[in-house]
Design the sequence.
């Protein structure tokens, strides 16, 4: 019999407590190597769409905020087009789509200044509700955690979202909903473990 | 951009979230099962970073934090390899970021309190973008092992942290590279979160005397493998098909 000759993916390891040195060196006081930290600015003032801020925290199983996590987000522009390698067209040139934030070193709180994403189709053409992909790494997290943030004020779109619809325990869906705080502000807390544990995905 | 979806991640090859030998994972691991779905555009796309963002010394940790005319202290090494996917194809134009302790095992980070001194000429961060065949390289000093509070006397093996972007956000990966022959590797609770010896060996870089520059720097080879993509009939880019 012939042998399949695929390689195996490199095994993941924790980002450890000093992920900031490599990913946001200016944040941790290493200046002069990179002019700015990657993913710090997602939008220019002229970016299309509703300008929003997303604030939140990552909490461990004891209810303590992680003060050494790194959170990355990836999302479509206001028209539902991804910057980068998009087969459907050119995204808003004033919007990066990618954000990276280490959170405050005392409170663990992070804020992304971004735009509200448009709807993106599934491979079969059905529309997904507006969402932001989150990826969380930190000391103690052996493999980066994927989740999605949806908007609690998009009830109709959320109700027909194919990914939310796959979640068997529908009482867990609210863990993926960011709550509006007025003035384009949203709050999204991520709970790694225990009560109201956030839904994490294997994509 | 490929419409080919990703090979499913083999979660039995990666470390599990809950690995009590590594104590911090106990309260930072989800207790519910992950929910699977086939990747959509949200996972198949990812940020693209251009060479124009790189500074001249970004891949040279010997000098990118050093005063003019100075260099970091420690054994000089070159780390090189390719970013590949599981089908063995080079993954071009993707960002590779690295960070590490200095030769004495000390990180330049305000929350680090190890007694070994900082090196005034060593910052510990670097980055590069893979070439058309997926190749990358950087030069640095060999990092030292260091103690950490897990059990009473745990020491990390010498290692370099790697953060790698693929062409899709579902390929996002952070891992660590270890050095051939280090006796601390098999004693490390973080290494031992990985279930199989074979998978651990994938993170151990061999010494490469052929790429070693005589009288200058030793070389270590470290290939990084990202998730593969299924082929589609609709496109024929070298990566993603």
Sequence:
């Amino acid at each position: 019999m012939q042998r399949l000759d695929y390689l195996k993916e490199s095994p993941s390891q924790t980002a450890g407590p000093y992920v900031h040195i490599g990913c946001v060196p200016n944040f941790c006081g290493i200046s002069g190597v990179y002019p700015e930290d990657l993913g710090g600015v997602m939008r220019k003032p002229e970016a299309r769409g509703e300008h929003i801020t997303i604030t939140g925290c990552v909490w461990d199983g004891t209810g303590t905020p992680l003060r050494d996590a790194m959170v990355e987000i990836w999302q479509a522009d206001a028209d539902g087009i991804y910057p980068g390698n998009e087969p459907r067209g050119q995204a808003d040139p004033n919007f990066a789509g990618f954000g990276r934030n280490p959170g405050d070193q005392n409170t663990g709180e992070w804020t992304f200044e971004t735009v509200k994403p448009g709807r993106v189709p599934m491979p079969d053409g059905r529309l997904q509700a507006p969402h932001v992909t989150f990826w969380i790494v930190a000391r103690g997290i052996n493999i980066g955690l994927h989740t999605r943030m949806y908007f609690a004020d998009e009830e109709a779109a959320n109700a027909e979202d194919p990914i939310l619809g796959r979640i068997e325990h529908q009482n867990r869906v609210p863990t993926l909903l960011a709550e509006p705080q007025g003035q384009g502000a949203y709050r999204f807390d991520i709970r790694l473990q225990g009560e109201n544990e956030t839904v994490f995905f294997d994509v | 951009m490929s419409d080919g979806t990703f090979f499913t991640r083999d979660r039995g090859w990666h470390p599990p979230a809950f690995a009590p030998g590594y104590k911090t994972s106990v309260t930072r691991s989800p207790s519910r099962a992950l929910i699977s779905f086939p990747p959509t555009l949200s996972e198949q796309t990812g940020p693209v970073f251009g060479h124009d963002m790189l500074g001249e010394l970004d891949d040279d940790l010997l000098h990118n934090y050093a005063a003019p005319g100075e260099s970091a202290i420690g054994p000089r090494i070159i780390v090189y390899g390719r970013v590949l996917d599981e089908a063995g194809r080079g993954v071009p134009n993707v960002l590779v970021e690295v960070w590490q302790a200095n030769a004495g095992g000390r990180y330049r980070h305000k929350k680090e309190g190890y007694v070994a001194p900082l090196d005034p000429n060593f910052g510990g961060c670097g980055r590069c973008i893979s070439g058309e065949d997926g190749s990358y390289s950087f030069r640095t000093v060999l990092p030292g092992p260091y103690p950490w509070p897990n059990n009473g006397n745990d020491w990390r093996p010498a290692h370099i942290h790697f953060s790698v972007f693929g062409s899709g956000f579902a390929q996002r990966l952070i891992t660590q590279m270890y050095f051939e022959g280090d006796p601390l590797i098999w004693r490390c609770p973080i290494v031992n979160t990985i279930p199989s010896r074979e998978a651990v060996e994938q993170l151990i870089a061999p010494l490469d005397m052929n790429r070693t520059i005589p009288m200058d720097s030793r070389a270590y080879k470290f290939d990084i493998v990202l998730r593969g993509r299924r082929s589609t009939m609709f496109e024929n880019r070298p990566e993603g098909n």
Notes: Chain A has three helices and eleven strands. Chain A has a mean pLDDT of 97. Helices of chain A lie at 19-23, 155-159, 162-166. The CA atoms of residues 36 and 153 of chain A lie 34 Å apart.
